[in-house]
Every structure is written in C-alpha cells, then in structure tokens.
Design a protein that fits this description.
This protein has 134 residues and is mainly beta. The chain is 3% helix and 56% strand. The strands form 3 sheets. It has a 5-stranded antiparallel beta sheet with strand order 1-4-11-6-9, with no helix packed on it. It has a 4-stranded antiparallel beta sheet with strand order 5-10-7-8.
C-alpha cells in the first residue's frame, strides 16, 4: 500500500469585490493495486469512440482516483471531452471538457468505462489511475 496526498490550493486577490480567495484542501488517500500512467492521442475523427478512445475500462478497476491532463498547447480547439460508455461515434454521456493545459483529479467508482473525444486534431491525454485500497 501507498499513500497519495492530493492538495488543491485556490488563491485570488481580485475574484470578488467583497473578499479574497485563499482556500487549501488536502487529503490522505491509501492506494494500492495498479498505478497506471498512459498517454493517449484522442482522435477527433473516430468512428467508434468506445473502441478507439477508451481511457479506462470499468471492469479492469475497483474504486480509484483518476488524474486527467490535456497536454495540448494549442491556442484554440483540441478540447478533450470525457464521458462514459460510447454509443458508436459519440459519447453516451459527457461529463467534463478539458481545454489545452487543463486537468482534473477525481474519485471514480468504476461502474462505467471512461472514454474521450476531441473537438479537433489529436490532442494527447495524459491519464493516471490510482486504485483505492478500500
């Protein structure tokens, strides 16, 4: 078993006229099982998103923590949309979109596979999964 310590810090001195933002959240997560990092070129022209752009297959994991990062440096386009099990050429459900340089870290219960689609080009998605020990 290993310990993963995610920390999120949000700071802004001009987010609001009435207050400053200074928030830090930290957790300690116990992880084991497979810890996998992969880089996937997400095709915008895929005819079968579920086959071509699967990020993580639900049946391969238990409850996990996922980090997704759109590594594109494009100034426009190349948005990666993350969703659940694909229906042919489209996502069955769209859960989030990551613009170039954006990332997300979230718990995943692995009840449905995660798939992706790109708005244009073939941006690279860096995906990391840390399987929970509990």
């Amino acid at each position: 078993m290993a310990t993963l310590t995610p920390t999120l810090t949000l700071n802004s001195s001009d987010i609001s006229a009435s207050e400053q933002l200074n928030l830090t959240l930290t957790d300690t997560l116990t992880v084991d099982g497979p810890v996998i990092t992969k880089r996937i070129a997400i095709s915008s022209g895929s005819t079968d998103v579920g086959t071509d752009n699967t990020v993580f297959v639900a049946t391969d994991y238990t409850i996990s923590y996922v980090l997704l990062y759109n590594t594109s440096t494009a100034t426009s386009g190349e948005i990666i949309t993350i969703g659940t099990t694909a229906a042919a050429a489209s996502l069955a459900a769209e859960n989030m979109s990551l613009k170039p340089g954006e990332w997300a870290f979230f718990p995943w219960d692995s009840s449905v596979s995660l798939v992706a689609d790109a708005s244009s080009g073939s941006p690279v998605l860096e995906a990391r999964i840390y399987q929970s020990a509990s």
